[in-house]
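Issue 218. Parser rejects a valid record. Input:
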Amino acid sequence: MKLDQNTDLQDVPLEEQLVGVNAKTGLYPGARSWSGGRHRILGRGALESYCYHVMSRTCGGEVFLDEVEKEALRRVIWRMAEFSGIKVVTYCVMGNHFHLLAEVPHRETWLQRFAGATGEVKLLEHLGVLYSKAYVGLLRDELCDLRTRGMAVLAEQKLAMIKKRFCDLSVFMKELKERFSRWLNKRRGRRGTLWMDRFKSVLVEGKGEALRTMAAYIDLNPVRAGLVKDPKDYRWCGYAEALGGSRRAQRGLCKALGKPVDGWLNAGAGEAYRCLLHAEGREVKDAQNEKVVVRGLTAESARAVLAAHGKLSPAELVRLRVRYFTDGVVLGSKEFVEGIFSAQRERFSPKRTDGARRIAESDAPFYALRRLRLRPLG
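Output the parser choked on:
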């Protein structure tokens, strides 16, 4: 719905305000551009998937999303991820920006679901995630017509253009932001660009300490901003959604923790993640099997450790704003960062002999591809 000065949102049901977010688009499935744009450090593995921390901010940080708009962006993230083949590990939608920890599967491996005699049927069914039955039907008829007229090559080219939109981080982010921008501009009656730039990204090692620390860093955004004392109380983050019973959010955090896909309760992933978050406090049992509350770490205690020239644990690190998590380019173990550096050696100066840069402020073996000298922690 479109807002005006006389609109009282308290009198309008949430689902009515979100009309359009879940609507199937009428755009032709193969017509969207998908330029790669600015160079990024992307994983290059024969059969591997890669994880990325991606961030985007509204123009100048001046457009602030209300609760309905945050909910709309959350829904668009999940829907575009389902369509694109991207797996959401966790996310956080803030007032003027959002964070997403995403796993991008190896495209050729993921596309095998559309192989074989029934592959095209499955592909057209998959398009129903975003597109109306009418438009999918038109595409089906067009493909049939092209083949009947002896132009099967053109039909295959159209299908290939659709497949190029899958398992591509740049295409995913471009379409996500465009789709949300159109909805928000219509709702507010505004025009023009919503997002300040394309997006920032950090390639994160897809397992171990780096991945689970990055997930916690993202879920703790509202705590660092002073909006809540516990991330479970912030509706628009992956952790709160997981606690609310969302299986897809739980599966994402199980990935971050290296637990089985159904391990949120069965393998104790939920409890383990809460311990990592170190929010306001958590209940544990003492030697007498009595419940006691252990208070969590604070940003002040983490800064005190740094002031004393000490090292921060991952649990302390995520209480601060860490530029390595947003500007470090690549984050992970020394072996992982060196591997990415070696695989993409042509991007760097011949004078550079190695890739991994130790995050000196942490006692965990975290390495980044870029050394940050100006306020790496805040």
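Fixed in the parser; the record now loads. The longest helix spans residues 169-188.
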